TrEMBL record:
Gene for this chain: pcnB
UniProt-recorded name of the protein: CCA-adding enzyme
Oligomer status and interactors: Homodimer.
Residues annotated for Mg(2+) binding in this entry: 40, 42
Gene3D superfamilies: 1.10.110.30, 1.10.246.80, 1.20.58.560, Beta Polymerase, domain 2 (3.30.460.10)
Residues binding CTP, per UniProt: 27, 30, 111, 154, 157, 160, 163
Length: 393
């Protein structure tokens, strides 16, 4: 067992000693069996949230109405959720009510896919009600129970299916895939934030191009923001040279493939409920991408882009199979006298101390100096800059 489970074992044992059942469950069990990195350990138990809280010194009411408390133990935090079923699914979204139940079986039944419905006890034994182990072995994503019914309960599960395909490099079981084809329109009921989260995980998974093909084939792509009717443009994605490796590059790539006009990019990003920071980054990447396609960037243009934007832009060119001399660009960037505005040897105060008044002219002069330093026309020290200013007067 990996370290992370061994560290968490006393948490299960504490619950057991108090007379409750407790198991590791969901993604962590799946990932440990696949020898994948386990990033967090979820625990399911017969104890009610109030009972869980009494057993541990520190706890947080993460989602106490849904049965989840987070406890702190040995410097780690663990989400502990009471066995539950879900009822009252309305509008094909998450249920409004949960009902606590006394056995694990009911809890496993509510889970989305067989590979996510595995539990492990303190002895490392696996509870596998739906042949999840077999599906893990055969690399198959299969809905627990009737896929059609399960997607009607919560349509986000359809996006989760393609997301897990991409992350785990698995295939969709036939009936599960057919149910997505028949019900993709239900995705319209799901909040964009939840869709975005799964879409990004799909885009950044190691099999994102294969998963994207299924995302298109099942027509899920018709029911997400700004993708409807654009299948012919999106068909390029599965044929790309590589998959994107950053979230900003995923968005930049999609925007380039969809040929979103420059003045519509922020609307597109907003439609997907992206943050302003993400939108700004994506806009800068696309601007740099267009610039590089147009001409060899000047030193100052490289400086203005900055390292992160430059690297992302080069990645995009690679992904799209465009020939650019990326090493030369990176070498040139690395050789710049300064790489950030804060590295300039002077600031506005320096100019004011030399008798300049605050205002537009000062800003202009500062920009000019920065440009000259970046393009190696003045050395980046106060004497050289002072001399340049002397000569101006
Ligand atoms: P990740 O590695 O991304 O955390 P995960 O499988 O742990 O993957 P989570 O979204 O963290 O995914 O959910 C934890 C578990 O809760 C899942 O493994 C699954 O058993 C269950 N689950 C999550 N979302 C749903 C859903 N929409 N419908 C049914 N079960 C779900
Ligand atoms: Mg998880």
């Amino acid at each position: 067992l990996p370290e992370i489970f061994i560290k968490a074992m006393p948490v299960l044992q504490t619950l057991e000693s108090a007379g409750f059942e407790a198991y590791f469950v969901g993604g962590s069990v799946r990932d440990v069996l696949l020898h994948r990195h386990v990033h967090d350990v979820d625990i399911t138990t017969s104890a009610y949230p109030e009972e869980v809280k009494k057993l541990f010194e520190k706890s947080i009411d993460t989602g106490i109405k849904h049965g989840t408390v987070t406890i702190l133990y040995g410097g780690e935090s663990y989400e502990i959720t009471t066995f539950r079923t879900e009822s009252g699914y309305q509008d094909f979204r998450r249920p409004d009510h949960v009902t606590f139940v006394q056995n694990l079986d009911e809890d496993l039944k509510r889970r989305d896919f067989t590979i996510n419905a595995l539990a492990m006890d303190t002895r490392g034994e696996i509870v596998d009600l739906f042949d999840g182990l077999k599906d893990l072995k055969n690399h198959i994503i299969r809905a627990v129970g009737n896929p059609e019914k399960r997607f009607h309960e919560d349509a986000l599960r359809m996006m989760r299916a393609v997301r897990f395909m991409s992350q785990l490099e698995f295939k969709l079981e036939e009936n599960t895939e057919q149910a997505i084809k028949d019900n993709h329109e239900l995705l319209k009921k799901i909040s964009v934030e939840r869709i975005r989260e799964e879409f990004v995980k799909m885009g950044l998974g190691s099999h994102s191009r294969q998963a994207f093909q299924i995302f298109l084939d099942t027509e899920l792509s018709e029911d997400v923001p700004d993708f409807a009717g654009k299948k012919d443009l999106l068909e390029v994605y599965p044929k790309l040279q590589f998959s994107p490796t950053t979230e900003s590059n995923l968005w930049a790539l999609i925007i380039i493939l969809l040929k979103v006009p420059d003045d519509q990019i922020s609307k597109f990003m907003r439609d997907w409920k992206n943050s302003n920071a993400m939108t700004e980054k994506v806009e800068r990447i696309i601007k740099m991408f267009d610039l590089i396609a147009d001409h060899a960037p000047s030193d100052y243009e490289l400086f203005e882009a900055g390292e992160e934007i430059l690297i992302n832009t080069i990645d995009i060119a690679h992904i799209l199979g465009q020939p650019i001399s990326s090493e030369a660009l990176v070498d040139r960037y690395m050789a710049l006298p300064i790489k950030k505005a804060s590295e300039l040897a002077i600031d506005g105060r320096f100019l004011i101390e030399r008798g300049m008044r605050p205002g537009a002219k000062l800003g202009h002069t500062l920009n000019r100096i920065r440009e000259l330093v970046v393009s190696s026309k003045i050395e980046n020290n106060q004497e050289a800059i002072g001399q340049y200013l002397d000569n101006l007067e």
